[in-house]
Amino acid sequence: MHEDELWLTAWFNNHLAGAANSILGLVHMTAQDPARPWENWIVMELLVVAIMMAGAALLRPRLSVEKPGKFQHVMEAFYGFFKNTMEDVGIEHGGKYLGYFGTVFLFILVMNLIGLIPGLESPTMFPAVPLGLALVTFLFYNALGFGHHGPKYLLQFVGPIWWLAPLMIPIEFASHLARPMSLTIRLYANMFAGERVTTTFMSLIHLLVPVLFMGLHVFVAFLQAYIFMILSMIYVKGAISHDH
After folding, report:
1. Which end of the chain has fewer CB atoms at under 10 Å, N or C?
2. Within a domain: residue 63?
């Protein structure tokens, strides 16, 4: 067992190392240590997925119009929050996108908060996780752009005046390519710093001060999930807009 290996990661490596190596083999990759191929961030992501699936499985059969439970009230509040935020951004008739935005927000939020549980870590403090989310968002809004406009979507990169195209095209392409990096660095840096500060103070002092920093960590967790979601909405709005 490696020194920085979480207990759950150790269990995966002790019992499911063969499965991980088989999956890596399918994409012609090899783990640095084939005997222990599972990384903390991968296991934490899988745990978050399992938690969200369990939450959905518990909520679905209990949905009720007459007697909604507390969990349903919470999720309905989130739904209203997502819908209102999307409308504020300017996305009209965006119900078909709401599932993506809501999933991204809740997925990031749970990943950010899970590090507060002793013995676990926030997977968003590892660069690969924010990068994966950023690339998915990048592909998502560009796919929507092509879906709405077809090849004419590329005209958005030309600019409003045709003779400025030689200048605008490289600027616009550079701007779009920088978006995944911006999303990645913002989420990773904030969660890495927050996790380290909270862990340090919890190890030094065990009373009031750690509680204050845990509260700050929760605030940052919500804030970073919100920023990632609203930037995703803004990118989608720009991609599907007919204003250009």
Report:
1. N
2. yes
Sign of dihedral through CA atoms 204, 209, 213, 218?
A: positive
Per DSSP, helices labelled H in 70-127 are 70-89, 95-113
Q: What is d(CA 236, CA 216) in angstroms, rounded to the nearest whole number?
A: 30
Helix axes 208-240, 95-113, angle to 10 degrees: 160
What is the token pair recorded at 63?
């949905």
* pLDDT confidence tier of residue 108, bands split at 50, 70 and 90: very high
Whether 113 and 29 map to the same domain: the answer is no
- Burial of residue 219 (CB within 10 Å: 0-12, 13-18, 19+) is exposed
pLDDT digits (tens, 9 = 90+) for 180-201: 999 999 999 988 887 777 766 6
Of 120, 122, 134, 150, the C-alpha closest to 186 is 134
Residue 101: domain span: 52-240
Does the pLDDT value for residue 116 go beyond 70? yes
Q: Tell me how many degrees the CA angle 158-161-163 measures, rounded to the nearest 5.
A: 85
User: How does DSSP classify residue 119?
Assistant: T
d(CA 91, CA 242): 11
- Sign of the CA dihedral 87, 89, 94, 98? negative
The answer to whether residue 44 is domain-embedded is no
Instruction: Specify whether the CB–CB gap between 41 and 124 falls below 8 A.
Output: no
